[in-house]
Amino acid sequence: MDFGPHLMLASIEGAVISAILVLTAMGLSIVFGVMRVVNVAHGEFFMLGAVFAWAVSTLIGGHAGFGFVAALLIVPVLVGCIAAGVDQLILKRIDYDVDRTIVATIGVLYIVQQSTLMLYGPEARPVAPPFNTRLALPWFEFGADGFQMIWPWGLSVTTYKLFVIIAAISVLGMLWFVLTRTKIGLIMRATQQDREMAQAFGVPVNRVYSWVFGLGAGLAALGAVLVVPIQQAHYLMGGDPLLLAFIVVIIGGLGSLPGTVIAAVLIGMSDGIISVFFSPTLAKIIATFLVAMVLVFRPQGLMGRVAA
Amino acid sequence: MTKTSKISRRSTLLGLGAGASALAAGGVLPGSLGFAQAQSSAPIKIGFQKHATGIGAAYGRWYDVATNAAAARINEMGGINGRPVEIITEDDATDPGRGAEVLEKFANQHEVDVAFGTLFSHVVIGSAPRAGELKLPYFVVSEGHHVASGMLNRYTLQPGITDVKSQVISMAPFVADNLGKKVTMIYPDFAFGHDHRDFFSQAIEAQGGEVVAKIAIPPTETTFTRYFPSIPRETEVIYHVMVGPAVLTFVKEMGEFFGPSRPEIFGFIDSLEAVDIQSPGLEFLEGTYFWEGMPRYKQANESEAASAYRAAVGVNDSGAAIDDPANVATYAHMFGCWETMHIIKAGMEAADYQGPADRSKLIEAVEAMTDMPESIEHPQGEKVFNGKTHQTFGKQYISKVGDGRLDVVHTASIEDGLYEDEVDYTTQSF
User: What is the complex's ipTM, to 2 decimals?
Assistant: First the structure.
């Protein structure tokens, strides 16, 4: 494949990866920002989103579109409720202690993963995309006959992949609106800045924590519902998103939302482009190397603030 | 702790005591009751190393079905040497380190007579040296070439399924004659994939073709579009063999990449074992070819033995579980467990196997086997076992996808897949 079309294909792949990654990492980042909880089970909420999406679309049947829309509406809420339950049952009882929440969420990781294996089984199950037309993409070049449009072999995208990118951008927009322009967002930000002061002003901090933990898991689940027509639902699929989300959040700055978006696009695009031109292993090496460099030279992340 | 626990020392001791007496009564503890049973009627224990979790879990579940169906049939017929067969299952997590531990558990804790049933080549390679040290016969159902290559030891045998080298050699003539001579290979980046790469490259060159690109994919990869631009434009045939949970994504994305202008595609069904061929996104596979160890869809000429086997493992005419049509079997591989179980039975009977002291006699008895005619014990078809290389050779099938099902278009004979011996395990001491 020529360089130009090749780069275009790589960029599209990178954009899809970024879109999913930004939702997953955003969930992780919000939970850390507000609650100071490092949620190691985040990837499993992602996996649950995919598995429930399969369950919902199978239950509903009929045209793929109905099942998909139903999954898009129901699944993030359902996973959010499960996460809120985890918060009430476990995290609250260990007082959100930093070390103990890490161990506790590792436990949750295994409980969720192995229960899924027992109840859902080991196979990867597909969800039909609501629409999926292959669009061949043109490329322009100056040939012997002057400027011309060609259709390179293999250069294509599907309508569904474009939809994923647009959907992720709109969800981000909504999230930004909620966080900065609504009372819910105000309460969340108040809790983030000073938990005790917020409580003194009548903010029900414990309930906010449950909501935030649910929201974080719901965002991961939403990313999974979007990705499951591209990949399949499988009980081990939570590992990679967790690792990538941590990479993004560390580079962007834990708790910083703009930093998370920038880092997600950076990591997603570089993963897409480097892995197309060189090798996917090299892309992972570079991403983890970046994390190390950020931790050494700018421990608070690109956009993070130094802890007071 | 503020509350006192409900488990007190006294109740724990009581419970332990009750448990111990229950065990003694059941004849588990050595004691007066333990000897009451004559040794010859104690069950033959077969340790089944199962990929219950990890990337091999879908295979593990169906290997389990075939193994237990074979054990049930053997027990119905009166067991082995008049003793019932008991399957002892341990999960190896599809992990080589864990696999070796499982063998130790089999030998020391369960005291099994033989170990059996491993598929994934890295687990076999990780476990086999331990089997040799423990002097535990290890019957693998892995298709890997590592048994016949001489890499393993005298205790490791593969009598129930043909190895990759033989499969691949027998496919090359069909690919070169019918599909094209310029081949791009896409395979997983571990021992099993490397077997495909090495042996198919040689085999296709022997047919006057060439491999124009070799694309290795890490086994845990989840997206694949990024690999496809490395496929050279001159490619006439794509040869793909992928394993693991992301196989469906792989095939789907390949379809989206090529669109209407795809080259010929030949794959190993490993890419779609346990996956419904009618899954959304797989439409583009219409007209492509697959190797199958055993035809998943019931063929018009299916032998009586093959049909009886299909019924015994509870699989319908489309290769899915009778009670759950969404549960597609790993039909091209799982026959290996059924056949290996029957070979263990035949070997133990030939060796008049009584207990672990007769393990080397059992291996010699299996090594002495040669022709295995098609029968209910060998439903996949006749086989020739090579006692020197510990490897069996059988017929192979090439099926074409049409109308959302697979139908056999070519059957490669045993002779098509034979190659020179690379080892003589019988010269090794026990």
Answer: 0.76
